[in-house]
Specification:
The structure holds two protein chains of two kinds. Chain A is an all-beta fold. In chain A, the strands form two sheets. In chain A, strands 2, 4, 5, 6, 9, 10 and 11 form a seven-stranded mixed beta sheet that branches. Chain B is mostly beta strands. In chain B, about 0% of the residues lie in helices and about 55% in strands. Chain B contains no helices and twelve strands. In chain B, the strands form three sheets. In chain B, strands 2, 5, 6, 10, 11 and 12 form a six-stranded mixed beta sheet that branches. Chain B starts with a strand and ends with a strand. The mean pLDDT of chain B is about 90. The chains are: A mainly beta, B mainly beta. At the A-B interface, strand 4, strand 5, strand 9 and strand 10 of A face strand 6, strand 10 and strand 11 of B.
């Protein structure tokens, strides 16, 4: 298994550009999520999905869109990049646990995004 | 609302010292999971432990141990006889049900940066 893969690993954008960060997993996990990591802020949840066709907002969803058309893929779209979106982005996946909580998450290697 | 607090931003210890990383959480859920993850300087996130809300038994794994206390909403992590390779950022995380949508989500604390000095 490749686990959780993310592309690209590095990206530089100009303000106002749009782009899509790709995330894929081959473990048949139902739950997938996107986090951003900023110094001193830890990991903050952007969006998450509990299955194909189902997504929900996390703590910091503004400026980002997601969709989940398949179990394997969970792309994150930046609609109009801003310098405040400069960050490291992590995608994660896990099994859903019955009666509430999410199982251990497996993380991708991250995408380092710089917006000029 | 769910919240995870890691009050220690940075900790420095000398090699072979014991060190405890604190984690305090808030949740209204009766069923939830707590996690610890490690992020070494290379940047990847490494899972360390998962504990569910019905299991308050403390756990020891080699030099690592975890103390889960529901009464104080704490899930602390201790490294015994620290080593330089333990230098990393450690994150505590909480998984529980979203009241708004009934979907569960995982919230991370801000992390504690541990430096072990040789």
């Amino acid at each position: 298994n490749a686990g959780v893969t993310q592309t690209p690993k590095f990206q530089v954008l100009k303000t106002g550009q749009s782009m899509t960060l790709q995330c894929a997993q081959d473990m048949n996990h139902e739950y997938m999520s996107w986090y951003r990591q900023d110094p001193g802020m830890g990991l903050r949840l952007i969006h998450y999905s509990v299955g194909a066709g189902i997504t929900d907002q996390g703590e910091v969803p503004n400026g980002y869109n997601v969709s989940r058309s398949t179990t394997e893929d969970f792309p994150l779209r930046l609609l109009s990049a801003a310098p405040s979106q400069t960050s490291v982005y992590f995608c994660a996946s896990s099994y859903q646990v019955i009666q509430g909580a999410t199982d251990t998450q497996y993380f991708g290697p991250g995408t380092r995004l710089t917006v000029l | 609302a769910q919240k995870v607090t890691q009050a220690q931003t940075e900790i420095s210890v000398v090699e072979k010292e014991d060190v405890t990383l604190d984690c305090v959480y808030e949740t209204r859920d009766t069923t939830y999971y707590l996690f610890w993850y490690k992020q070494p300087p290379s940047g990847e996130l490494v899972f360390l432990i998962r504990r569910n809300s019905f299991d308050e038994q403390n756990e020891i794994s080699g030099r690592y141990s975890w103390n889960f206390q529901k009464s104080t909403s704490s899930f602390n992590f201790t490294i015994t006889a620290s080593q330089v390779v333990d230098s990393a950022v450690y994150f505590c995380a909480l998984s529980g049900m979203s009241l708004k949508t009934s979907y569960d989500k995982v919230i991370f604390g801000p992390g504690t940066s541990l430096s072990v000095i040789p």
